Amino acid sequence: MKILIADDELVNRKLLRDYLKAFGHCDMTSDGKAALELFIADLEDGDPYDLVLLDIVMPVMDGQKTLTRMRAVEKRLAPEARETPIIMVTGMDSSLQAMEAYFKGGCTDYLTKPVTRDSLLEKLRKLRLIDDAREGG
Hints:
44% of the residues lie in helices and 18% in strands. Helix 3 links the parallel strand 3 and strand 4. The protein has a five-stranded parallel sheet, with helices on both faces. The longest helix has 15 residues. Helix 2 runs parallel beside helix 3 and helix 3 runs parallel beside helix 4. The protein has one domain: Response regulator (Rossmann fold). 32% of the residues are buried. The chain has 137 residues and is of the alpha/beta class.
């Protein structure tokens, strides 16, 4: 699995990478603009991400704008392809933003911080990206 993690906090990026590295390669970035650039480049190369974890509050371009632009690029470059699962990651105080991302922006799901390994893996099972047999230690 190919995963993109976008969060402005290094500790959060590393934590998510540590939870996911048993399931595939993780690219990491600290802002929405850089995440969008990686997303577009890989989509254009025909090797799109299998999963994107996107923080809502980030510098340069916030997660909501990044999400909206990612969905627009998918429709333009790969209209027949399945939408990439995008999970928004948010602090407890911004659950309203997460719901807006979910209903308006087209995110697949969301998680609230602090993200636990169990909560993340449960989302991935629900999205059928992993199963219990593949669950790394």
